[in-house]
Amino acid sequence: MKFRKTLMAVAAVATVFTASYAVAQQEQYVGLPSYRVGPFGASGAALYGGWIDYMNMINERDGGVNGVKLTWEECETEYNNARGVECYERMKNRGPTGNSVFQPLSTGITYSVLDRVAEDKIPMVTIGYGRTDAADGTVFPWVFPMISTYWNQASAIMNYIGQKEGGMENLKGKKIGLLYHDSAYGAESHAVMDRLAEMHGFSVQKIAVASPGNEQQAQWLQIRRERPDYVILWGWGVMNPTAIRTASRTGYPVDKIVGVWWSGAEEDVVPAGDAAKGYTAAGFNPAGTNFPVIQDIMTHVYAKNRGNMSDQSRVGSVLYNRGVVHGIIYVEAIRTAQENFGTGRPMTGEEMRWGFENLNIDEARLAALGADGFMPNLQITCEDHEGSGLLKFQQWDGEKWTVVSDWISGDRELVRSMIKDSAAAYAAEKGITPRDCSAQ
Amino acid sequence: MTFFLEVLIGGLLSGVLYALVALGFVLIFKASGVFNFAQGAMVFFAALTFVGFTEVLPGWTGLAPGSGAVFWLAFILALSSMIVLGIATERVVLRPLVNQAPITLFMVTIGLTFFIEGVAQGIWGSHVRRLDLGIEDVPVMFLLDNFDMMISQFDVIAAVLALVMFVALAVMFQYTKVGRALRAVADDHQAALSVGIPLKHIWAIVWSVAGFVALIAGLIWGARNGVQFALTFTALKALPVLILGGFTSVPGAIIGGLIIGASEKVAEVYLGPYVGGGIEGWFPYILAMLFLLVRPEGLFGEKHIDRV
Hints:
Chain A is an alpha/beta fold. Chain A has 2 domains: 28-148 and 289-389 and 419-439, Response regulator (Rossmann fold, 3-Layer(aba) Sandwich); 151-283, Response regulator (Rossmann fold), CATH 3.40.50.2300. Chain A is 44% helix and 12% strand. In chain A, the strands form 4 sheets. Chain A has a 7-stranded mixed β-sheet with strand order 6-5-7-8-9-12-13, sandwiched between helices. The mean pLDDT of chain A is 92. By secondary structure, chain B is mainly α. Chain B has one domain (14-229). Chain B is 72% helix and 0% strand. Chain B has helices at 2-32, 39-61, 68-94, 102-124, 141-147, 153-175, 177-187, 189-194, 199-225, 234-245, 250-270, 283-294. In chain B, helix 2 packs across helix 9 (199-225).
């Protein structure tokens, strides 16, 4: 009798384990190298919160992607390169097919794992950061710096300023200040700004700010002396509100400052108070909660108390919405891969790469996703891992961001040729033979 | 010339604010011989706790958000939190380590840094907050109208506030019973104990005073740049100030702060363009290193002579 009971118990436990194992085999795993503490924790919490909420919404509303549930696991990097690599190694073999995509939200970590992702066949998606020339898919088949690269952003900002001045020809003779974070990230702007200055006849005054940038009196006094017509703020973290506040106290007009997309979130303007009123920044996603996709998250996630943001008022902020954009791109890549390789099972890293490389999120698809105007359309190819390169500009009115431009592109021809040249030099240095995309 | 003066005065005012952070280090070092690596984390903890209370108090008490009552209540609660933190540090962290080597005490403050940073963000969250002290950050109009110089009114008021605190603390150290006891403890733990100075109380007092200084520094720096994790980096600005001014001198912290603040700004403007800019992050350290070669104990630090 006792033996029979024991046998039944063992059978029951085995059934539960087998069933949960079978369910786990149907799940698409993604490891999230997030950062929620440390100097950039505030930005990381909003962005990864948006991404997780979107995946949660897909699970709750649709039961996953064609029946394949999404699972994720966070690994805290604190925006630290060594920890990022550790997280990458820890997560790369997790889940039924290993990590399906690596998105570190850090240019430093991107560089640190660049060779590893190619070796392990895990696509690395770097939306709005990372190595610009990785947009050349023939040399960097595993890296996807999507939507827009830094070079394209610099060019788009100059196009926006050109529009404000009544045409690019009116940039001739103008002075542009470039206040940049003194790091690899900040220096990404230099080459393209020099080329643009040469083409359009304006001059660039480059002013470095030592990290973290919590003291900028000297830099803004130099700007006050030189009086540039516009200042491009290429900052991150505490550097942004400090720049805006110091500009105000040294009398530089805030409406002549144009920030990059890492200088254009609520976290950058709220601490600056009234000094930030009228400040404009680039972005590839607007803020706001009126988009159907955000409303769906509210209905299917937050209404059930399953939201990732402890402070729900941050839902709809610039960085939160950027996290949702990350989620949309990830889910659409799974869908694209499934259409080619078969539904009902999780995709491997190689299959996901195919999904990213054949991504086509056009206007109709954006509307179907409830993301019309929420992000630009996105077509990725074997050669071009960047996509549309379209940006919108938003202005802070003291309470909220308001979109003040249509989608604006950079000088695609110029940027593409610079990407090609740089990627070719990298290929020569590393002995890489570029892929033949016609054979893909 | 006006531009040079603008750079110089701006630098001096910034230097006073660096000295304010350095003061927290000096207080603890004077009283316990401990180089408190956690001072930056304490600045962050204090400012975050203050802002956190201003957010939750209206809901708890029904007081109007942004009112003076909320401000002062939040200030008292944040100060109390710093005192509790100071006493807890003495009880849990320092008391078991009395008479241990200085490096042991230093290492334990590194652990304390991570603990304080984690607790602060665990309680109040990690998002960036605005802190409005009601002091407008606009140029001083008198200087602008008469000399075409833009000097921040906020920085001037903050510097005056900091100087008042320096004077009060210097007087306390020099002329009060507690101050004498603090200095005795700093000289030799065992000798101080043998003449009846209550070491534990003295440590609790000094950590609490350092908590108060951290709160003032946190409020000023938080109002300038927002209350966020980057406040912990203010400690990095204080280190060269300490090397220059000496680890045991309150006036040294001020003079060191003024020299560092002014020299880094002047160097950034006049030397920076020749070496690629962004030099104010490392320039003070080079200056402090050169100074170390000439005067290892700093400008006003106590000369340490060991019998061998």
